[in-house]
Amino acid sequence: MPKTLHQPSGPAAIRSKSLNKPGRGLLFYLYRDRYLYLFLIPAMSYFFLFKFVTLYGELIAFKDFRLLDGVWGSPWVGLKHFHTLFSSSEFWNVLRNTLLLNLYNLVFAFPAPILLALLLNELRVNWFKRAVQNMLYLPFFISWVVLAGIIVSLLSPSTGVVNAALRLFGIDPIYFMTSTLWWPVVFIVSTIWQSAGWGTIIYMAAISAIDPGLYEAAKIDGATKLRQIWHITLPGIRGTIGVLLVLQMGKMMDVGFEHIFNLQNAAVFSVSDVISTFVYRTGLQNAQYSLATAVGLFQALIGLILVLTVNKIVKKLGEGGLW
Amino acid sequence: MVKRLKSMPLYLFLALCAFITVFPLLNILAMSLSSSRAIISGEVVLWPVEITVQAYKQLFIDGQLLIALKNTVIITAVGTVLQMIATTLAAYTLSKRRLKGRQIFTFMVMFSMLFGTGLIPLFLLVKQLHLINTFWAIWLPGLVSAYNLFVMKSFFEGLPAELEESATIDGATDLTVFVKLTLPLSKPILAAISLFYAVALWNTYSNALYFISKSQLLPVTVKLYQMLQTPIDSLLAGGDSSQYIQPEGLKAAAIIITVLPILCVYPFLQKHFIKGVLLGSVKG
After folding, report:
1. Does the keyword Transmembrane apply (chain B) (predicted)?
2. How far is CA A243 from CA A7, A248, A306, in A?
3. Residues A173 and A158 sit within 8 Å (Cβ to Cβ)
4. Per-residue CA distances from A118 to A134, A245, B137, B145, B275 (Å)
5. What digits encode the pLDDT tens for the residues B10-50?
C-alpha cells in the first residue's frame, strides 16, 4: 500500500475528545451537530432501506413466498428450498462453473496486472509509458454489453478477424462462442483485456513507494534486473497483493453477472451458467422467488466466510489485510 | 546505446499489448463504416473498406437507439447528481471524529460491503416501492457506493483541521464550513468520484434489465443487448430489401454509437480517474 496520504493528525483527535465533555445529554450533541446528522440522512436511509431492510427479504429463502401474502404472511417451510437446491444437478453444475471460472480468474487474470505493472515500471521514456497506459486502461470504462458485442464480432467464424487470420495459416474456422472448450478461454482472455491495465494503477503506486536506495544498494552488489524485481519490488508490493487477493477471494462465489450474461448462449450453457445468471433466470424470469433467494443467501454466506478467512490468513502471514 | 537496445524487446512487447487492447475497438469502428460486401468477405481489419455511413443512417432513421441514448443521458446526469449529494454529505459527516454514533454508521457501511443482498429481496423491495419501470429503480438501489464513500471520507479527514477551527471561532456553522471551505478544497476528489459514478451510470445494465421492461425507458446498454441478440432485420421497421445491410455492420454501428461518448471524453478524464483510484488505495 502506498503511504497513507491523509492521516488525521494527533492534536485533532485530542481536541475532538475534549469537545465531548462527559455529562452532556444526547440532545446536546444532536443539537450541536444538527447539520451533520441532517447530512447523513440521504445516505443512511439508502443503506438502511437497501442493505438492511432487504435482509428481511432474505427470510423468504425459508418460506414458500407468495406475492399476495408478502414476506411475513407466506408460510414457513424450513430448509425445503435448500434441500431442493442441493439435490438438483443443475445447482451443482452452476456452483462448479462459478468456482471454476473464478479459479481460472485467480490463476490467469489475477497475476496479469502485477506482471504488467512490473514491465511498465521498467519503461524510461515517459510519453511512451503514458501512451501505453492510456490504451491499456480504456476497456475498463466500456460496459460488458459493448465489449461482448465486440468479442462476438471479432470471433465470428464467417466475418471475424480472428478466424480470417487463422484461415491465412490454413486453420479451419473455430466456433469460439459456441464451443464449450473455447468459451472459458474467451471468458478469461476478455477478463484480462478489460481489467489488467486498470489493475496496474494500484501496483504502480505501491512500487513507486519503495525506497530507491534499496535498488542502488542491490545494483552495487551486482544484482540483475530480475533479481532486483524478485528481492525488492515483489516483497515491496506484497501487502498490496495480499489485500487485492482478499478482495478477489471474496468474489469467489460471484462471477460478474454482466460479463457472463452478455457472452452466454444456449450452446455453452453447461460451462457458462453461474450463480448470478441462475438467480436471474429462476428468480426474475421464472418467478421462483424463494428458490432464487436461497441460492443468493448461500452465495452471500460463503462469500462472507471466504473474505473473513482469507483476511485472517493474510494477517497471519504478517501483512495488513483489509482491516 | 547498448542499454537502450537491450530494453527494445520490452518496449516492443508493451506496444504490442497496447495495440492488442485497442485493436478490437478499431476493428469494430472500421466494420461500422464498411460496405456489406467487404464485411462478408472478411476484408475489414483496421481501416474501413468501401466506406459508407449506411449503417449509421439506418440506425438514425429507425430512432430506437436514439431514444435509448436519450434515456441514458438522463439516467447519467440526474443519477450522478443524486449520488454525489448523498455520498459527499455522508462522507463529510463521517469524517468528523466528534460525531456521536459515527462508529455505528461506519459499521453499517462496512457491513454492506461484506454481505451482499440477493437480487430477489432487492427486486421485491423495488417492486413494493413501486419503482419498477421508473428511472428511480436505477438511481436508488445504487445511490451510494461504500467504496466511494470511504475514499471521500479519507480525503476529508486529510484536510487541515485548523481551517475549520478558525472558521468555527468566527461563528461559522457546519453548513457554512462545508459549503465555503470544504467543497472548494475538495475539487479533485469531487471530480474523480463523480466521474466514477457517471461512467458506471452510463454503463448501467443489470438494474435496467431487472427493473425496467418498458421499451421506451430502456437505457442504451439494454437496447444494444437486444439488438445484438435478435436478427437485425426484425428490429428495423419497414426494412427495404434493396437497402439491406449486413447485420454485422449494423451491430458494429450500434456498438460505436453506444460507446462513442465515453471514447470522446476519455482522454480528458483519465487523469482524474487515476487520482480517484490512488486515493482509494488509502485505507478507509
Report:
1. yes
2. 20, 9, 13
3. yes
4. 17, 18, 42, 30, 20
5. 999 999 999 999 999 999 999 999 988 888 887 888 888 88
Q: Is B28 close to A153, i.e. CB distance below 8 A? A: yes
Helix (H, G, I), strand (E, B) or coil at A63: strand
Burial class (CB in 10 A: 0-12, 13-18, 19+), B263: middle
Cβ-contact B89, B186 below 8 angstroms: no
| From A5, A9, A149, residue closest to B224, measured CB to CB | A149
Q: For B218, what's the count of Cα atoms within 13 Å in the CB-facing half-sphere?
A: 19
Q: What's the whole-model pTM score? A: 0.87
Q: Is B18 on the interface with A (CB under 8 A)?
A: yes
Nearest to A122 among B7, B205, B283 (CB): B7
pLDDT per residue as tens digits for the range B96-138: 888 888 888 998 898 888 887 889 999 999 999 999 999 999 9
What residues of chain A lie within 8 A of the CB of B151, using their CB? none
Instruction: Give residue B253's identity as a one-letter amino acid code.
Output: A
Which residues make Cβ contacts (< 8 Å) with residue A57, sequence separation at least 6?
A71, A293, B117, B118, B120, B121, B122, B124, B125
User: Residue A76 is which amino acid?
Assistant: W
